Amino acid sequence: MTDAPLQTPLLKIRGLSASYGAVRALRGVDLDVADNEFFALLGPSGCGKSTLLRSLAGFEDPSDGTVTLGGADLLALPAHKRPVNMMFQSYALFPHLSVEKNIGYGPSRAGLAKSEVAARVAEVIRTVGLEGLGGRRPSQLSGGQRQRVALARAIVNQPRLLLLDEPLSALDRNVRAQMQLELKRLQHEVGIAFVVVTHDQEEALSMADRVAVMNDGEVLQVASPEELYRNPVNRFVAEFIGRSNVFEGTARPDGLEVAGGALLPGRGHGSYLVVRPEDIDIRERAAESSGGPAGGSAGGVLRGQVLETQFSGGSTAIAVATQGPTTVAGQPVLVTQPGFPTVHRGAEVELTWSADAARIVA
Amino acid sequence: MSRQRPSQRPGQRRQGLGVLWIPLVGCLFFLYVPIATVVVLSFNSGRSALNLKGFSLKWYPELFSDSNLGEALVNTLLVAFGAMVFSTVLGTMLAVGLVRYTRSTTLDAVVMAPAILPDLVLAIGLLSFFTWVGFSLGLTTVMLAHAAFGTAFVVAVVRARLVQLDRSLEEASQDLGAGWFATFVRVTLPSIAPAVLAGALLSFTLSLDEFVIAFFTNGPNTPTLPIEIYSRVRFGVTPEINALASILLAVSVAAVLVGALILRRTEKDDD
Questions:
Q1: Smallest CA–CA separation between B177 and chain A, in Å?
Q2: Cell membrane: present as a keyword of the record (chain B) (predicted)?
Q3: Given A86, A202, B213, B234, which is the most exposed site by the fewest CB atoms within 10 A?
Q4: Domains plus CATH for chain A?
Q5: Within the 172-191 window of chain B, which residues sit less than 8 Å (CB to CB) from chain A?
């Protein structure tokens, strides 16, 4: 649950670097993945997460660093000899082979007897819920079914580590939510460590036990989803994980001093203050206090005017244009509250939050 | 403007050809009259095109009794088959190498050159080369020469297919424990099979009627069919030649149809 190194990691990555020509795709990555762990590599496109995954599979040649799996050097083995399997983003199902032959491809290459291959294939087909489709070609399957075939093909060899490259990106939105749960269930069931690459923070947060946030070839933070959300180490992680309001200024003992002298409550060191939308209390300003100077912290932390409210079932999102301090991105401050909106467009409001709810980060 | 039907949006294709059928028929006429001439004359009972007498099948049996033509046909088939095997194997390997292991456009151009260069250049070059290294001219040299440009065509066809092939298919195969050879045989080859087949057909038919290069690189005693035909038509086209051309036409059409059917079937499969 923390950044501390694991006692006996299954996968141990130390100082891994890779480059394409002049572009350094990985800059000295250190990571540990435990046995049976659901681990996510999260980052924007081009952050190096795919290169990292492909290095583990054996399709990229890192220039520097070591990777051990269960104590054995992984980089010394060619791709086809690694006890690691990968589920490809495009699924990469063999179009000329049936579902059964696709799944049986790995066991057959391993030299298992035909009856043994058939037994394993049948078992995995049951595991992923593809009964009755074994004779079909990939072209005769739906997107969700193809994904199951790809998954079955990747776990049938019983690898020690399963790599998943954007496993859900090719699916429709509603199928995706269902497959997220399914992947997690399956991971518990088969007891294989999963390393999944994704650019979708929701996906990473909802599935993974721990998440590594990457940017520009570096790992910025490794933590549980809750920890990442509550205690981001820097502005990038804060903005990448969930929705946030970020202010720039100078750290003081009890908050962040922003341009104009206002002090926003928060704890930590650095020059950015992060406050989550649901941690902000919003209330309409009493008429008598509306004559006060703008930008002050009298009463509330911030004052502003409601630009828009958006009711989406269980909760309401409210955009507030603040007077005085504005967010780094220049966007309105976002507030969310459970239930129906308590303020309306155009209302003069005060925003408050406690110092414990906001973090000051680098 | 006012006569335009309301359903017709601008830029929409019109129903029917209108007056466009006149140039269309003109073009088809231009393309197919020579072919029709050959077929018609092969059934003409008179000896010359100048006297169309009546329908006759007599030139066909006469054709088969001509042992020289038969020999030339066998020579041609040997050369075409050899060139096909040679260029299909070499061209496929070359295409895989070019697509999977380099990104050099220069190398691409170098490989494709024999297909684009004028035949005459290739013919003269090959003749000089064979003479220089002391290779006696005959069917082997023709076969090698045809394989040289056939390879370029096979590369072109197979390459186009390989470029479209999802690279991760081969990676998945490796990931599942197959070495490079098993991957090539079990994944790459089945995926590019239609293109390999099309390339093979192409190199076969190209060799079948190739004249210039064969003329330069052949020995005196083993004429291929085009050379044999040419040596006969110097004194006018005989009806037997028309019959032969008609048979070649039928064979080529059949080959193209078979090829198209195979392609269509495999494309349906992996669609």
A1: 4
A2: yes
A3: B234
A4: 11-230 (3.40.50.300), 243-361 (2.40.50.100)
A5: 172-179, 182, 186-187, 190-191
